[in-house]
Design goal:
Oligomer: single chain
Radius of gyration: 13 Å
Shape: globular
Distance between the termini: 49 Å
Helix content: 55-70%
Largest sheet: 2 strands, antiparallel
Number of strands: 2
Structural class: mainly alpha
Strand content: 5-15%
Amino acid sequence: EVVVDGVSYTCYIIDLRISKACRELINTNKTISEICFSTGFNNISNFNRQFKKSKGRSPKDFRELYRKKHVLV
């Protein structure tokens, strides 16, 4: 496996996909499932596992937390 600056190619790609998923969770009303597949993951359980590993919470919790912090009045 290719490693650049201590990061494997696989981890780098997963990080890019998780970053895109975060933007979609924040900026769209797409379902978690739609975001999972649109960001290149093949199944929801792997997406949830990778997301939680990266962000410390599930995609659903991430979205809810972000929306609570950014309520416009």
